[in-house]
Every structure is written in C-alpha cells, then in structure tokens.
Write a structure and sequence with these properties.
By secondary structure, the chain is mainly α. It is built from seven helices and five strands.
Length: about 180
C-alpha cells in the first residue's frame, strides 16, 4: 500500500503534465492506495486556489476517488462526511475538522461563523412567521416578520448548539440543502 502526496492526486485531475499524469495513473493502477486526510485537505486547497476549480468539480473528484477499487481514505467515514458537507457549501477544512471530531464523538468548536451553514425554512403563518432548522430537530423560532424569524432562528441555533455542547451530544453536520423548483401553476 502507498500513500500518494498531494501533487500525485492533483496530476490525476488536472492533467497538466503528461509524464507525471501517466506516472500517477500507473501508481493508482498497480498499487493499493491510502489517501491521507492531510493530502486530501491540501489537494482541495491547491485545486481551488491554484487551478481555480469549482467546488462541484472537486467534490466529484473526491467522491470518485473514494469509490475507486483499491483506493481508501484515512478515516474514510469522516472524509466521506466532509466531502458531502463540502459539496453542500461548507468550507472543506472546516468540514474535515468537524467530521473528524464527530467520528470521535466529540464536539468541534470554532469562532469561524461561516464554518457551518444550516438550511433554515421560514414559513408564513396566519399572524406571524415561523422558522425551523432541517438538521437540528426541535430548533424552532417565530417572528412577526420574516426578518424577525430569521434573527430569532439564528439565536435559537446558537442556543440549541450550546445545549448540545453542554449535554456532550454530537453536533450534526449540515446535510440538508434548499433549492427552488419552478413549475407552471
């Protein structure tokens, strides 16, 4: 079994050096591969910052690697969870940190407000607006306006997560995604 460096993974995707790409492909064809978390982390950064690849392209590459016969990932469940969270919009480093902590049944704490983005539904009721978080059952709030409900749900999420930390309950990574579908009514 071998553990390739970041540049080997990058060559497989960007194919910017024919000789190195051929050598990288040969390694993957002839050996069992273990992709280390640190290599995956660095590869995302290189592909995003140096090659300016889109998130979907990088996430698809990582998912395809994980599905390739003879290829494994260090702490594979955490890596797969991180790739899924990344595909839904979370930063890859934060997703990997949070997924690794969750795999060890410990809470991940950060001051990075953009680290985790939960999908929130805001609905208009008869006299107010209600909001809830798809990935945090029981986390709800209301407000007189949609903006009030949005502000209230932000506070509710912070309160909910703090309670989970105090109870030493693992905080779930976001897994829901919200989109709109246009239909003729």
């Amino acid at each position: 079994m071998i553990a390739p460096d970041t540049n080997v993974l990058v060559r497989l995707l960007v194919v910017d050096d024919a000789a190195q790409t051929a050598r990288a492909s040969s390694l993957f064809e002839q050996s069992d591969i273990l992709i280390l978390k640190t290599v995956l982390l660095e590869a995302e950064w290189v592909l995003r910052s140096r090659y300016v690849l889109e998130r979907d392209h990088i996430a698809t590459f990582f998912r395809n690697l994980a599905e390739t016969e003879g290829v494994g990932m260090e702490h594979e469940d955490a890596c797969r969870a991180a790739v899924a969270a990344y595909a839904r919009g979370m930063g890859f480093a934060d997703a990997l940190h949070a997924a690794s902590a969750a795999a060890m049944n410990i809470s991940f704490h950060t001051f990075d407000a953009a680290a985790v983005r939960y999908a929130v539904v805001i609905e208009q009721a008869e006299t107010n607006f209600s909001a809830y978080v798809l990935d945090l059952p029981g986390c709800v709030a209301t407000g007189e306006t949609a903006e009030d409900a949005n502000k209230a749900i932000r506070e509710a999420i912070e309160f909910h997560l703090e309670g989970m930390r105090q109870d030493e309950t693992p905080i779930p990574l976001p897994s829901s995604r919200v989109d709109y579908v246009e239909v003729v009514a």
